[in-house]
Write a structure and sequence with these properties.
alpha+beta, 2-methylcitrate dehydratase PrpD, 19 helices
Length: 447
Protein backbone atom coordinates (compact mmCIF):
# COMPACT_ATOMS: atom_id res chain seq x y z
CA UNK A 1 0.00 0.00 0.00
CA UNK A 2 1.10 3.54 -0.72
CA UNK A 3 0.73 6.89 0.97
CA UNK A 4 -2.56 7.75 -0.72
CA UNK A 5 -4.19 4.42 0.09
CA UNK A 6 -3.07 4.49 3.73
CA UNK A 7 -4.36 8.02 4.16
CA UNK A 8 -7.74 7.22 2.65
CA UNK A 9 -8.18 4.16 4.82
CA UNK A 10 -7.55 6.37 7.83
CA UNK A 11 -10.04 8.96 6.59
CA UNK A 12 -12.74 6.34 6.07
CA UNK A 13 -12.46 5.28 9.72
CA UNK A 14 -13.05 8.72 11.23
CA UNK A 15 -15.73 8.71 13.89
CA UNK A 16 -16.85 11.55 16.15
CA UNK A 17 -17.23 12.09 19.85
CA UNK A 18 -19.28 14.91 21.36
CA UNK A 19 -16.22 17.14 21.74
CA UNK A 20 -15.58 16.79 18.00
CA UNK A 21 -19.19 17.63 17.16
CA UNK A 22 -19.11 20.68 19.41
CA UNK A 23 -15.94 21.97 17.74
CA UNK A 24 -17.47 21.45 14.31
CA UNK A 25 -20.56 23.45 15.24
CA UNK A 26 -18.31 26.26 16.49
CA UNK A 27 -16.37 26.17 13.22
CA UNK A 28 -19.66 26.44 11.32
CA UNK A 29 -20.75 29.48 13.34
CA UNK A 30 -17.37 31.04 12.61
CA UNK A 31 -17.80 30.38 8.88
CA UNK A 32 -21.04 32.34 8.84
CA UNK A 33 -19.33 35.25 10.62
CA UNK A 34 -16.60 35.26 7.97
CA UNK A 35 -19.19 35.01 5.19
CA UNK A 36 -21.20 37.98 6.42
CA UNK A 37 -18.02 40.05 6.60
CA UNK A 38 -16.80 38.84 3.22
CA UNK A 39 -20.10 39.60 1.53
CA UNK A 40 -20.06 43.17 2.81
CA UNK A 41 -16.37 44.03 2.60
CA UNK A 42 -15.66 42.53 -0.82
CA UNK A 43 -18.69 43.92 -2.64
CA UNK A 44 -16.74 45.42 -5.55
CA UNK A 45 -15.52 42.05 -6.81
CA UNK A 46 -18.49 40.10 -5.43
CA UNK A 47 -20.82 41.95 -7.77
CA UNK A 48 -18.64 41.17 -10.79
CA UNK A 49 -18.48 37.48 -9.92
CA UNK A 50 -22.22 37.38 -9.28
CA UNK A 51 -22.82 38.94 -12.69
CA UNK A 52 -21.01 35.98 -14.25
CA UNK A 53 -22.28 33.13 -12.05
CA UNK A 54 -25.93 33.78 -11.24
CA UNK A 55 -27.22 34.26 -14.81
CA UNK A 56 -26.03 30.71 -15.55
CA UNK A 57 -28.87 29.40 -13.39
CA UNK A 58 -29.33 25.65 -13.65
CA UNK A 59 -30.97 22.95 -11.57
CA UNK A 60 -32.11 24.33 -8.23
CA UNK A 61 -30.26 22.00 -5.84
CA UNK A 62 -28.47 23.92 -3.09
CA UNK A 63 -28.82 27.04 -0.99
CA UNK A 64 -26.56 30.04 -1.58
CA UNK A 65 -25.77 32.76 0.94
CA UNK A 66 -27.81 35.95 0.50
CA UNK A 67 -29.93 34.39 -2.26
CA UNK A 68 -33.49 33.05 -2.11
CA UNK A 69 -33.11 30.86 -5.17
CA UNK A 70 -31.22 27.56 -5.16
CA UNK A 71 -28.39 26.85 -7.62
CA UNK A 72 -26.57 23.76 -8.89
CA UNK A 73 -24.37 22.12 -6.25
CA UNK A 74 -21.09 23.17 -7.85
CA UNK A 75 -22.11 26.82 -8.23
CA UNK A 76 -23.49 26.96 -4.68
CA UNK A 77 -20.24 25.51 -3.32
CA UNK A 78 -18.20 28.04 -5.31
CA UNK A 79 -20.20 31.13 -4.34
CA UNK A 80 -20.46 30.30 -0.64
CA UNK A 81 -16.72 29.68 -0.42
CA UNK A 82 -16.04 32.87 -2.38
CA UNK A 83 -18.12 34.94 0.05
CA UNK A 84 -16.53 33.22 3.05
CA UNK A 85 -13.00 34.35 2.21
CA UNK A 86 -13.72 37.96 1.34
CA UNK A 87 -12.68 39.50 4.66
CA UNK A 88 -9.91 37.11 5.80
CA UNK A 89 -11.85 36.12 8.91
CA UNK A 90 -12.21 32.37 8.35
CA UNK A 91 -10.55 29.59 10.34
CA UNK A 92 -7.14 28.19 9.45
CA UNK A 93 -4.33 25.89 10.47
CA UNK A 94 -0.70 26.90 11.01
CA UNK A 95 0.96 23.65 9.99
CA UNK A 96 -1.13 23.45 6.86
CA UNK A 97 -0.47 27.16 6.22
CA UNK A 98 -3.97 27.83 4.98
CA UNK A 99 -7.71 27.78 5.54
CA UNK A 100 -10.02 24.78 5.80
CA UNK A 101 -13.60 25.58 6.73
CA UNK A 102 -14.07 28.19 4.03
CA UNK A 103 -14.07 25.56 1.28
CA UNK A 104 -15.14 22.46 3.21
CA UNK A 105 -18.33 23.83 4.75
CA UNK A 106 -19.68 25.22 1.44
CA UNK A 107 -18.80 22.01 -0.43
CA UNK A 108 -20.33 19.64 2.10
CA UNK A 109 -23.42 21.78 2.73
CA UNK A 110 -24.11 22.12 -1.00
CA UNK A 111 -23.87 18.39 -1.67
CA UNK A 112 -25.85 17.56 1.47
CA UNK A 113 -28.72 19.71 0.14
CA UNK A 114 -28.85 17.57 -2.98
CA UNK A 115 -28.42 14.21 -1.25
CA UNK A 116 -30.72 14.80 1.72
CA UNK A 117 -27.94 13.74 4.08
CA UNK A 118 -28.30 13.35 7.83
CA UNK A 119 -26.79 15.77 10.32
CA UNK A 120 -24.30 13.16 11.47
CA UNK A 121 -23.27 12.43 7.88
CA UNK A 122 -22.57 16.13 7.37
CA UNK A 123 -20.46 16.43 10.53
CA UNK A 124 -18.48 13.26 9.74
CA UNK A 125 -17.85 14.50 6.19
CA UNK A 126 -16.59 17.84 7.51
CA UNK A 127 -14.27 16.12 9.99
CA UNK A 128 -12.95 13.94 7.16
CA UNK A 129 -12.25 17.04 5.07
CA UNK A 130 -10.49 18.90 7.88
CA UNK A 131 -8.32 15.83 8.53
CA UNK A 132 -7.47 15.44 4.84
CA UNK A 133 -6.66 19.11 4.37
CA UNK A 134 -4.44 19.50 7.40
CA UNK A 135 -2.55 16.24 6.88
CA UNK A 136 -1.93 16.67 3.15
CA UNK A 137 -1.05 20.35 3.24
CA UNK A 138 1.16 20.02 6.32
CA UNK A 139 3.11 17.21 4.66
CA UNK A 140 3.80 19.47 1.68
CA UNK A 141 4.96 22.49 3.69
CA UNK A 142 6.99 24.64 3.59
CA UNK A 143 7.87 23.68 0.03
CA UNK A 144 4.34 24.25 -1.20
CA UNK A 145 4.37 27.91 -0.16
CA UNK A 146 7.97 28.33 -1.30
CA UNK A 147 6.90 27.32 -4.82
CA UNK A 148 4.17 29.96 -4.78
CA UNK A 149 1.12 27.74 -4.24
CA UNK A 150 -1.81 28.72 -2.02
CA UNK A 151 -2.60 25.64 0.03
CA UNK A 152 -6.20 26.76 0.57
CA UNK A 153 -6.78 26.22 -3.13
CA UNK A 154 -4.47 23.38 -4.08
CA UNK A 155 -4.81 21.20 -0.96
CA UNK A 156 -8.35 22.43 -0.37
CA UNK A 157 -9.55 20.80 -3.59
CA UNK A 158 -8.32 17.42 -2.38
CA UNK A 159 -9.90 17.92 1.03
CA UNK A 160 -13.28 18.85 -0.44
CA UNK A 161 -13.14 15.79 -2.66
CA UNK A 162 -12.44 13.56 0.34
CA UNK A 163 -15.19 15.18 2.42
CA UNK A 164 -17.80 14.88 -0.32
CA UNK A 165 -16.82 11.28 -1.10
CA UNK A 166 -17.36 10.51 2.58
CA UNK A 167 -20.77 12.18 2.36
CA UNK A 168 -21.62 9.84 -0.50
CA UNK A 169 -20.64 6.92 1.74
CA UNK A 170 -18.14 5.81 -0.86
CA UNK A 171 -15.70 4.02 1.46
CA UNK A 172 -11.92 4.21 1.42
CA UNK A 173 -11.64 3.40 -2.29
CA UNK A 174 -14.20 6.05 -3.18
CA UNK A 175 -12.31 8.63 -1.13
CA UNK A 176 -9.09 7.65 -2.87
CA UNK A 177 -10.71 7.92 -6.31
CA UNK A 178 -12.11 11.36 -5.46
CA UNK A 179 -8.74 12.62 -4.22
CA UNK A 180 -7.03 11.16 -7.30
CA UNK A 181 -9.39 12.99 -9.62
CA UNK A 182 -9.04 16.18 -7.58
CA UNK A 183 -5.25 16.14 -7.97
CA UNK A 184 -5.76 17.00 -11.64
CA UNK A 185 -8.10 19.90 -10.80
CA UNK A 186 -6.17 21.78 -8.12
CA UNK A 187 -5.25 25.42 -8.46
CA UNK A 188 -4.43 28.51 -6.50
CA UNK A 189 -1.34 30.69 -6.49
CA UNK A 190 0.05 33.18 -4.01
CA UNK A 191 0.25 35.77 -6.77
CA UNK A 192 -2.56 37.68 -5.09
CA UNK A 193 0.10 38.79 -2.61
CA UNK A 194 1.95 40.61 -5.39
CA UNK A 195 -1.00 42.68 -6.56
CA UNK A 196 -4.80 42.77 -6.73
CA UNK A 197 -5.50 40.62 -3.64
CA UNK A 198 -9.26 40.84 -4.14
CA UNK A 199 -9.09 37.72 -6.33
CA UNK A 200 -7.86 35.54 -3.45
CA UNK A 201 -11.37 34.13 -2.68
CA UNK A 202 -11.31 32.44 -6.10
CA UNK A 203 -8.93 29.88 -4.60
CA UNK A 204 -11.27 28.43 -1.94
CA UNK A 205 -14.18 28.92 -4.35
CA UNK A 206 -12.60 26.68 -6.97
CA UNK A 207 -11.44 24.24 -4.28
CA UNK A 208 -15.05 23.77 -3.16
CA UNK A 209 -16.42 23.56 -6.71
CA UNK A 210 -13.76 21.21 -8.09
CA UNK A 211 -13.71 19.06 -4.96
CA UNK A 212 -17.46 18.48 -5.23
CA UNK A 213 -17.09 17.69 -8.93
CA UNK A 214 -14.30 15.18 -8.29
CA UNK A 215 -16.43 13.39 -5.70
CA UNK A 216 -19.39 13.33 -8.10
CA UNK A 217 -17.25 11.72 -10.78
CA UNK A 218 -15.82 9.19 -8.35
CA UNK A 219 -19.32 8.33 -7.18
CA UNK A 220 -20.17 7.45 -10.80
CA UNK A 221 -17.20 5.11 -10.96
CA UNK A 222 -14.60 7.35 -12.61
CA UNK A 223 -11.13 6.58 -11.27
CA UNK A 224 -8.08 8.80 -11.16
CA UNK A 225 -4.44 7.71 -11.27
CA UNK A 226 -3.13 5.30 -8.65
CA UNK A 227 -0.69 6.72 -6.09
CA UNK A 228 -2.05 10.14 -6.95
CA UNK A 229 -0.21 11.86 -4.12
CA UNK A 230 3.13 10.08 -4.06
CA UNK A 231 3.47 8.90 -7.68
CA UNK A 232 6.34 9.90 -9.94
CA UNK A 233 4.17 12.60 -11.46
CA UNK A 234 1.79 12.88 -8.54
CA UNK A 235 0.51 15.84 -6.58
CA UNK A 236 3.38 16.02 -4.08
CA UNK A 237 5.91 15.97 -6.93
CA UNK A 238 4.17 18.99 -8.45
CA UNK A 239 3.84 21.17 -5.37
CA UNK A 240 6.86 20.56 -3.13
CA UNK A 241 10.48 19.46 -3.03
CA UNK A 242 10.12 17.49 0.19
CA UNK A 243 7.27 15.45 1.67
CA UNK A 244 7.09 15.20 5.47
CA UNK A 245 5.29 11.87 5.73
CA UNK A 246 4.93 12.05 9.50
CA UNK A 247 2.19 14.66 9.05
CA UNK A 248 0.14 12.16 7.05
CA UNK A 249 -0.21 9.85 10.04
CA UNK A 250 -3.12 9.90 12.47
CA UNK A 251 -2.74 11.48 15.89
CA UNK A 252 -4.48 11.05 19.25
CA UNK A 253 -7.17 13.58 18.26
CA UNK A 254 -8.87 14.88 15.17
CA UNK A 255 -6.94 17.77 13.69
CA UNK A 256 -9.99 20.02 13.46
CA UNK A 257 -9.18 20.87 17.09
CA UNK A 258 -5.86 22.37 15.94
CA UNK A 259 -7.51 25.08 13.85
CA UNK A 260 -7.34 28.72 14.82
CA UNK A 261 -10.10 31.32 14.85
CA UNK A 262 -9.49 34.89 13.72
CA UNK A 263 -10.38 38.04 15.62
CA UNK A 264 -9.03 40.47 13.04
CA UNK A 265 -10.06 40.86 9.36
CA UNK A 266 -6.59 40.40 7.95
CA UNK A 267 -4.07 37.77 6.93
CA UNK A 268 -3.04 35.59 9.88
CA UNK A 269 0.55 36.74 9.42
CA UNK A 270 -0.51 40.16 10.75
CA UNK A 271 -2.20 38.93 13.92
CA UNK A 272 0.74 38.58 16.30
CA UNK A 273 1.78 42.11 15.37
CA UNK A 274 -1.73 43.39 16.05
CA UNK A 275 -1.83 41.63 19.44
CA UNK A 276 1.57 43.10 20.31
CA UNK A 277 0.50 46.60 19.22
CA UNK A 278 -2.70 46.41 21.29
CA UNK A 279 -0.61 45.46 24.32
CA UNK A 280 1.77 48.38 23.67
CA UNK A 281 -0.99 50.93 23.07
CA UNK A 282 -1.25 52.15 26.65
CA UNK A 283 2.50 52.14 27.24
CA UNK A 284 3.63 54.57 24.54
CA UNK A 285 2.70 58.09 23.47
CA UNK A 286 2.40 58.03 19.65
CA UNK A 287 3.71 61.57 19.21
CA UNK A 288 6.93 60.60 20.99
CA UNK A 289 7.69 57.52 18.87
CA UNK A 290 10.92 57.69 16.89
CA UNK A 291 10.76 54.32 15.18
CA UNK A 292 9.12 50.88 15.30
CA UNK A 293 10.97 47.68 14.50
CA UNK A 294 8.83 44.64 13.67
CA UNK A 295 10.81 41.41 13.93
CA UNK A 296 8.87 38.80 11.98
CA UNK A 297 9.52 35.60 10.02
CA UNK A 298 10.38 36.14 6.32
CA UNK A 299 7.33 34.40 4.88
CA UNK A 300 5.05 36.90 6.62
CA UNK A 301 6.81 39.80 4.92
CA UNK A 302 6.49 38.01 1.58
CA UNK A 303 2.74 37.48 1.93
CA UNK A 304 1.63 40.48 4.00
CA UNK A 305 4.21 43.18 3.35
CA UNK A 306 2.09 45.80 1.60
CA UNK A 307 3.30 49.05 3.11
CA UNK A 308 0.43 51.46 2.42
CA UNK A 309 -2.86 49.82 1.39
CA UNK A 310 -4.72 51.68 -1.33
CA UNK A 311 -8.04 49.94 -0.65
CA UNK A 312 -9.76 47.56 1.77
CA UNK A 313 -8.38 44.51 -0.07
CA UNK A 314 -4.81 45.57 0.58
CA UNK A 315 -5.45 46.30 4.28
CA UNK A 316 -5.75 42.53 4.74
CA UNK A 317 -2.14 42.06 3.65
CA UNK A 318 -0.41 44.97 5.36
CA UNK A 319 1.54 44.27 8.53
CA UNK A 320 2.45 47.95 8.74
CA UNK A 321 -1.07 49.32 8.39
CA UNK A 322 -2.80 46.89 10.76
CA UNK A 323 -0.06 47.37 13.36
CA UNK A 324 -0.18 51.16 13.10
CA UNK A 325 -3.94 51.25 13.61
CA UNK A 326 -3.73 48.88 16.57
CA UNK A 327 -0.86 50.81 18.18
CA UNK A 328 -2.66 54.14 17.80
CA UNK A 329 -6.14 53.11 18.90
CA UNK A 330 -5.64 49.91 20.89
CA UNK A 331 -7.81 47.81 18.57
CA UNK A 332 -8.24 46.67 14.98
CA UNK A 333 -11.43 45.62 13.23
CA UNK A 334 -13.74 45.74 10.23
CA UNK A 335 -14.25 49.50 10.64
CA UNK A 336 -10.56 50.01 9.81
CA UNK A 337 -10.84 48.34 6.40
CA UNK A 338 -13.22 50.23 4.15
CA UNK A 339 -11.90 52.73 3.44
CA UNK A 340 -8.45 52.40 5.00
CA UNK A 341 -7.87 54.96 7.74
CA UNK A 342 -4.89 56.61 6.09
CA UNK A 343 -4.79 59.54 8.49
CA UNK A 344 -1.71 61.65 9.06
CA UNK A 345 -1.01 59.75 12.29
CA UNK A 346 -1.37 56.33 10.63
CA UNK A 347 0.79 57.26 7.63
CA UNK A 348 3.40 58.83 9.89
CA UNK A 349 3.65 55.68 11.99
CA UNK A 350 3.88 53.47 8.91
CA UNK A 351 6.85 55.52 7.69
CA UNK A 352 8.56 54.97 11.02
CA UNK A 353 7.97 51.19 10.90
CA UNK A 354 10.55 48.72 9.60
CA UNK A 355 9.90 45.05 8.92
CA UNK A 356 12.93 43.01 9.97
CA UNK A 357 13.18 39.39 8.76
CA UNK A 358 13.76 37.19 11.80
CA UNK A 359 13.71 33.42 11.30
CA UNK A 360 13.68 32.86 15.08
CA UNK A 361 10.09 34.11 15.14
CA UNK A 362 8.94 30.91 13.39
CA UNK A 363 9.19 27.37 14.73
CA UNK A 364 7.01 25.01 12.74
CA UNK A 365 7.49 22.09 15.11
CA UNK A 366 6.18 24.14 18.05
CA UNK A 367 3.43 25.85 16.08
CA UNK A 368 5.00 29.29 16.48
CA UNK A 369 4.68 32.10 13.96
CA UNK A 370 5.37 35.12 16.12
CA UNK A 371 6.24 38.78 16.05
CA UNK A 372 8.40 40.99 18.25
CA UNK A 373 7.50 44.68 18.15
CA UNK A 374 10.08 47.13 19.44
CA UNK A 375 9.04 50.77 19.87
CA UNK A 376 11.91 53.25 20.21
CA UNK A 377 10.97 56.60 21.72
CA UNK A 378 12.58 59.93 20.89
CA UNK A 379 14.17 60.06 24.35
CA UNK A 380 15.84 56.67 23.78
CA UNK A 381 13.41 54.66 25.90
CA UNK A 382 12.30 51.34 24.43
CA UNK A 383 9.10 49.39 24.83
CA UNK A 384 8.88 45.86 23.51
CA UNK A 385 6.23 43.16 23.17
CA UNK A 386 6.65 39.66 21.78
CA UNK A 387 3.67 37.54 20.75
CA UNK A 388 4.54 34.03 19.63
CA UNK A 389 0.96 32.75 19.40
CA UNK A 390 -1.97 35.07 18.60
CA UNK A 391 -5.37 35.02 20.23
CA UNK A 392 -7.63 32.41 18.70
CA UNK A 393 -4.97 29.72 18.34
CA UNK A 394 -5.61 26.45 20.21
CA UNK A 395 -3.07 27.59 22.82
CA UNK A 396 -5.11 30.79 23.33
CA UNK A 397 -8.63 29.59 22.53
CA UNK A 398 -11.68 31.76 22.03
CA UNK A 399 -14.90 30.85 23.81
CA UNK A 400 -18.10 29.99 21.96
CA UNK A 401 -19.57 33.28 23.21
CA UNK A 402 -16.71 35.21 21.59
CA UNK A 403 -17.35 33.46 18.28
CA UNK A 404 -21.06 34.30 18.50
CA UNK A 405 -20.18 37.92 19.29
CA UNK A 406 -17.93 37.88 16.21
CA UNK A 407 -20.91 36.70 14.16
CA UNK A 408 -23.05 39.55 15.51
CA UNK A 409 -20.38 42.15 14.69
CA UNK A 410 -19.79 40.80 11.19
CA UNK A 411 -23.52 40.67 10.43
CA UNK A 412 -24.26 44.22 11.57
CA UNK A 413 -26.34 46.04 8.99
CA UNK A 414 -27.09 42.77 7.17
CA UNK A 415 -29.09 40.75 9.69
CA UNK A 416 -31.24 41.36 12.73
CA UNK A 417 -30.36 39.91 16.11
CA UNK A 418 -33.38 37.65 15.69
CA UNK A 419 -31.95 36.23 12.48
CA UNK A 420 -28.56 35.72 14.11
CA UNK A 421 -30.18 33.93 17.04
CA UNK A 422 -32.13 31.66 14.67
CA UNK A 423 -28.94 30.96 12.72
CA UNK A 424 -27.02 29.93 15.84
CA UNK A 425 -29.93 27.78 17.00
CA UNK A 426 -30.08 26.05 13.62
CA UNK A 427 -26.36 25.30 13.76
CA UNK A 428 -26.67 23.94 17.29
CA UNK A 429 -29.29 21.49 15.98
CA UNK A 430 -26.88 19.90 13.50
CA UNK A 431 -26.64 16.62 15.37
CA UNK A 432 -28.08 13.12 15.27
CA UNK A 433 -29.63 11.20 12.39
CA UNK A 434 -32.25 13.78 11.49
CA UNK A 435 -32.15 15.14 7.95
CA UNK A 436 -29.77 18.05 7.53
CA UNK A 437 -31.46 21.46 7.32
CA UNK A 438 -29.01 23.86 5.72
CA UNK A 439 -28.67 27.01 7.89
CA UNK A 440 -27.74 28.98 4.76
CA UNK A 441 -31.41 29.14 3.78
CA UNK A 442 -32.13 31.36 6.82
CA UNK A 443 -29.93 34.12 5.40
CA UNK A 444 -31.57 34.20 1.98
CA UNK A 445 -35.03 34.13 3.53
CA UNK A 446 -34.17 37.04 5.82
CA UNK A 447 -33.22 39.44 3.04
Amino acid sequence: MGITTDLCRDLEKIDLNEKDREQLRTLIIDFFAAAYAGYKQNRAINEKVEAVVYPQGGVEESYVLFQEKKYPVRLAAFMNAFYGHGAELDDGNKKAAGHAGVHLIPAVFALADQLGSSNEDVLVALATGYEAYIRISSAAQPGLVARGFHSTGVAGTLACAAACARLYGSGAQGIEDAIALATTMTGGLLSYGDSRPAIKPLNPGKAAENGVFAAMLANEGVQGPAESLEGQNGWFHAVTDEVHEAFLKSSDHLLLHDCYFKLYPSCRHTHCGIDAAVALHGRVEPSLIKSVNVHIYPNAIKLAGIKIPKDQDETKFSIQYTLACALLQGSYGIADMDPPKLTEDVLGLIEKTSLIPDATMEDRARGIRGTRVEVIMKDGRREEETILVPKGDPEKPLTRDVIIDKLSVCAQGQATEETIMKLVEAIEKIEGICRFENPIKLIGAAL
